[in-house]
User: What shape does this take?
Amino acid sequence: MAIYFQKREIVVPGQLLAEGRYRSSIGTYSKDGKIYASLIGLAELRGNTIKVVPLEGVYIPREGDLVIGIITLVAGNNWKVDIGGPYGASLHANNALRRPYDEDISKYFDVGDVIAAEVIAFDRVSGPFLTMRGRGLQKLRDGMILNVSPSKIPRIIGRRGSMINMIKDKLRIYTIVGQNGRIWIKAPNTKILRIAIKAFKMIEREAHTSKLTDRVAAMIDEELTKIRGEQTEVSGAVPEEKPEEPPTEAEEKAPEPEGSIVEEETPAKVEEPESKSDEAPEAKIEAPVEEDKEQTEEEKEEVKE
Amino acid sequence: MSPEVKPDFLINAEGLRIDGRRPDELRPIEFKVGVLKQADGSAYIKQGKTFIIAAVYGPRELHPRHLTLSDRAYLRVVYRMATFSVPDRKKPAPSRREREISMVIANALKPALFLEDFPKAVVDIFIQVIQADGGTRCAAINAASLALADAGVPMKCLVPAVAVGKADGTLIVDLGDQEDKYGEGDVPMAIMPLTDEITLLQQDGSFTREELLEAMQMGIQACKYIHELQKDALMKAYATKAPSEDDDFDDDMETDLGEAEIIGEED
Amino acid sequence: MGDYSAEIISHIDRNHIKELLSRGERIDGRRFDEYRPIEIEYDIVAAKAEGSALVRMGATSVIAGVKVVLGEPYPDTPDEGVTMITAEMPPIASPLFELGPPKEDAIELARVVDRGVRESETVDVKQLVVEPGKMVYMVFVDIYALEFDGNLIDAASIAANAALITAKFDEYKWENDEAVPTGNRIPVPLKNLSIECTIAKIDDYLIVDPLLKEEFVQDCRLTIAIDENDNLTAMQKGGGSGPMTLEQIERSMDMAIASAKDIRELIRSTAKERENA
Assistant: This one.
């Protein structure tokens, strides 16, 4: 029994990580009683399980993932959806629309439309298949899509959403983080949008470093101070007046559900910030953070509260 | 465009080669990982005057569809030389040589990859030779395996490669262009350093059985040295840029990296 | 680069870009008439090519190499050398570029850059003669895209000019019916330095040096080659079939003339720095 790496050491493919009765997990393989890294990443030991947290890699779907997709084809009762990575996804109308629906489903979602959806099945030979039945799953409008490396998404969300919630609180933006590396952002104005992009890019670049939440928060505060043109306390609330922003934009409702598109319980999933309040908007959409099912469920509960 | 002249000797009276190297000495090698922004992974190698860029795209959807494999990803390698990479301008169209080299590079890398993780997909490796001064297929393999790691393609190990050969009766490592052209033989090879298994082996010229086995031993040693350079380059590209505060257990990294997932597995 | 009207651009990207333009902004924060920072690195292929340059504009980069070889002149121009520019869009540079023989847009790229150099008579072909009717120099400039994030034409044009302006080749003389090297290294005879500037039209907005995402939504682009006397030596309207008004073309010309000046100055000053280094 021996371990050949330091905690969170960057390891390279082929590097010997351990010998003896350890369990090989993601980013590793075992051969002749030895465990080696198969990816560049950070080596971790938990219990007797060894894994390498990847620092790179394309998106491989997992059941339960929230993804942001672009409709690429309408075929009969199916949409083909680009979710990045090697596998194009399918969305069946029954998983998106309330019956009866029109024969021509392109009137609901057409080529080029962007959706937030959930992966319901994937086994690398068939699928992935998507659904839009669920909280926050809808067609996205306005805003923009930022692409980051899918392997950095857990860091962008943070522990129980700590990172993403911090960013939302400080910048008062709407955002949906797809596990496939696409982040939908809707900001009150371009300056705020640029700070948000800078924050996400910073996390992507420095994902393998410590104390990142604090540094990102500090960067955002600094940038906010700059655009205010005056010193303010670190609370980070967005300035009351937003000069560039057309008034209609501020009043604009968050994405409305399509009339005949399935909606469970709550109609609009992305809530509008209470612009007069000092309170930051509460995040209503969160991507599942952890692989562990129980944990994910627990977190979903938390978010609901 | 000046015509090249055959040198009078390849090994001088002191036993040194035309560029002053000892028989078992490699040219200076420089690797850099992450050099192209559009590619999923990339790396360049400068080995002597040879300069090659390798890019990896994927695993991604494979077109045309009829090439798809149901149980693993298809590995597609395209090795191309720039027209200006050689003394005479090379014709732009792909040559038979380029196609063959593409294939042997694919075969050299395949055993090191977990292609079965991505059925039906393709992993594309594009290799552009910018300047050719001998040993391009081996240099290409060296750069390509770094580009694969940079793309996050799961692999058993990096694959280092080098050419060994013979000049004026002396066994030599890492042939330069003139040694390749005017020497007595050339053996490009690649290995998987964990097991010393050989994944690329070609030969031209004439060797005795003993010479060839000795040359291959020299090649394995040289590959192991190159492997160290590869690992260094990869580490360097991903080196932690964090402020060097002491590693605090309360920091935010622990759980972000998926701790919960493994706690669940513990019981 | 090409016509992306058939590509699937998300409605969100399209609206985002257009909405920004309507407020006078671009996705990367540049002004409409502002190029990305241009970096030129010379002598990338010093050991094999007569001249070479790597040009970076943001996340777009191209490499150009000059080869000079001897050959017979064309029968109709016995007292002129030959210049030829080729350009490739290899799959290394973008997930959008495909394997296989060059597609229309790659051919267009090569032809537009070639015209920019030849129509403005950048190279003085009269001086590329070893022996009239028998032997001339043939100057090849081959360009490879390495990274594609929009505006390949301008990057390729800059790289071609930078490689040409720094190229040196072996001089030959004609003796006893054959070409004999004189032992001198001479520069490529240049008369002019023509720069290509590309303007993308999106709705009624005109922007220089479009990013890939901007090319995705452009109605069309207009490339204009400008020589040292501010004369226009080549134009190409492409990258989509959207029409342009005369007024838009006039504005594009002014944008191109202004940008070409700066770019030409950059090439000249960096080439001089290289000389002095």
